[in-house]
Amino acid sequence: MPQLTWLVTGCTSGLGKQFIHSILARGDKAIATARGDISRLDVLAKAGAKVYSLDVTASPTDINAIVGTIVEENGQIDIVVPNAGYIEAGISEEVSYEQYLSQFAVNFFGVVKTTQAILPHFRAQKAGTIVFMGSVGGIAGDPGAGPYCSTKHALEGWYECLKIETAPFGIRSIIFELGHFRTKVFNPEHIQIRSSAIEDYTPLRTMVEGFIRGVDGNQPGDPKQAVEVILDVIRGEGAAEGKAFPDRLPLGGDCLVAMRKKAVSNLTVCNEWEDVIRSTDIAK
Ligand SMILES: NC(=O)c1ccc[n+]([C@@H]2O[C@H](COP(=O)([O-])OP(=O)(O)OC[C@H]3O[C@@H](n4cnc5c(N)ncnc54)[C@H](OP(=O)(O)O)[C@@H]3O)[C@@H](O)[C@H]2O)c1
């Protein structure tokens, strides 16, 4: 396998940071980005990564310019991982419009803008792989996760369309749907919980806050193992050896349970309601 060059966003912690370490360990080239002061990426630079400042909420013009500089200075980029993201938690009715916008600005439009910035280069080189970081929250909903789940469901839809549109240019896309992995995503410094309080929801809100405190640091998923599997799939080696490149891959036993439950539920509705579902077609 030739040496590949990866561009990853959101590399100060968690999966992004792990991506860079694992990419370098496989002998590939890694370009790490983070918003703000890139001295936060010193450890990755010392490990051999090229580092750049990239806030995924910046304007498309600014993101295009940064990605353009990255391509100019590093040559061909083979894989992009628009990884940056966070959880905006809150009861769906209590979360303000502005908070929904903040959540979409990072988790959805940040991904859209980063991907759009790299696509001209991928189309020109007639090759490239886009690795989307989906979530169990893009498969099913949970109380208190309305903003986050909305962005990850939106990502699923965008991915489905983009995959078909860009395939003729030799561009591969894949979405990994992760269950709960032990990163800083639920850490009080990363997760945002700032909804207003509607009295009726107090018991549910208390339950959600308890869940968030309880899950932080106790997630069942190993981030290093998730990234190693993702690298195997993209490079077609290790765990992916001899397997076809999938459209999507859930990671983590919790995500497997959620995906199966959703698939069975959808199939049950299709089977049990088939005559009713078909009854709305205009008769030929
Ligand atoms: N861990 C899980 O269980 C899990 C499950 C499913 C999906 N995911 C997805 O995996 C991705 C990485 O999450 P993680 O678990 O590694 O969480 P994490 O440890 O909290 O890392 C999130 C990263 O995103 C960055 N980020 C946030 N806002 C940004 C912005 N505006 N511009 C640039 N970077 C920004 C953070 O940088 P700062 O230090 O600047 O905040 C940080 O580097 C996310 O898309 C998340 O939704 C994670």
UniProtKB/TrEMBL annotation:
Keywords attached to this entry: Oxidoreductase
Keyword Nucleotide-binding: no
Pfam entry (one): adh_short
Keyword flag Oxidoreductase: yes
Signal peptide: none
InterPro entries: NAD(P)-bd_dom_sf, SDR_fam, SDR_oxidoreductase
Molecular function per GO: oxidoreductase activity
Protein name, as recorded: Short-chain oxidoreductase
Species of origin: Amniculicola lignicola CBS 123094
